[in-house]
Design brief:
Helix content: over 70%
Number of strands: 5
Strand order of the largest sheet: 1-2-3-4-5
Order of helices and strands: HHHHHEEEEEHHHHHHHH
Structural class: alpha+beta
Largest sheet: 5 strands, mixed, barrel
Strand content: 5-15%
Shape: flat
Number of domains: 4
Length: 460
Amino acid sequence: MSTMMKNKLNNYIICILAVFSVGMTTLSAQEAAAPQNLDQLLERVKQDRRSERKWLQDREKQFLADKNQQARLVREAKAELAKVEAVTARLTSTYEANEKVLTTLENELRIAMGTFGELFGVVKQVSGDFRSQIQNSIISAQLKNREPFIARLGESKELPTLDELERFWIELQQEMTESRRVVSFEAPIVTTNGEQTTALVTRVGSFNLMHGGKYLVYQSETDQIVQLGRQPPGHHLSTIKDLEGADANEMVKFSLDPSRGSLLSILVTAPSLMERVNQGGLVGYVILALLAVGLVIVVERVIALSKQEKIIKAQLESKNYDPTNPIGQLMIIFDKYKNTDLETLEVKMNEVIIKYLPSVEKGVNTIKIFAAVGPLLGLLGTVTGMIGTFQSITLFGTGDPKLMAGGISMALMTTVMGLVCAIPLLLLHTFVANKSKGIIQLLEEQSAGLIASRDKVAGE
């Protein structure tokens, strides 16, 4: 082996050993020098092995030292955990003992309070409800200064005294007692022209106030008795006069408002029938005229068709032929053409039926048209009313709803009128049309019967 080959082999071996020993030892400048021959290489390998063995021993010692350190830390952590668990157990025991003491104290408190706690809650609730009741009760128009005591009792955070409970019970009993009585008392009244006068007011329980044959209302916000600007219909007012003129133990009829004023306010503000009709305007009048004309046509058609049915039935029961009656005409034509061919006979008898059709069907389609036009006119009134409403909004804004009430009332009333016109006319049209078809069907049946009897005679 040549010297060059040996040198290359030495270099390869050195590189391999250097790769395995990198990071494990730190060589000095002299040790880092490349070996020049195999003896130096062998010596270098032995040194590296001794260095590696020493490094491994040092590392093992370090691992053992760290292991002892970790074991010591584990022992300290376990000791700390044992202390914490002991504290936890002691606190848990204390907590459970406190819970038992607290439960015992709460039971003792509940027993000591008895029913006072429940009584306190009931008094606050009932006093709050009763305060709202007496604020709006017309009995307060006669019995004054009841609300401050009830309000103080409901807002108090202390148990009520025996005197307060007794007074509260008396107030409740008095409200119940007064709600069944009809009494008269002097009180100031605000009339419709804004003047205040003192007069004798009649109170019917907790429902209505009256004076001079008219209903009154109690305004709790201002604590005033006000006369209604508009009274309900006359038959309700007549009951007031009967009640005011009745004796102490006399039974009379009276229009009572069980809602304590709500129904009365609605009743007096509700427009009458003529006022509702007037709200429809010109379109509403046209719809009513259309309905009236349609009803007249219906009555005329029902009377005419009923007479025709009566005449036809009388002809069927008679053996004499009446030429003014369609059945009589059919029989006359049959006797005249019964010996001719079948086609001629059918044509002649159909001519009688066709000639009679206009008098039977007259006005039926007119009723149907009126029933269809009614909702269209109602829609026209609706659109017209909404246009007026939007014009009011454009000119005056939405601040005052009364400015828009006219257009909205017209829109709604014309819609109602259109339906009121269409629904009965549509039902009556069906009735008249069925009656008309019944007469035509009866004529066709008689015509078919006569032709069939002719064919039977010819066959025999």
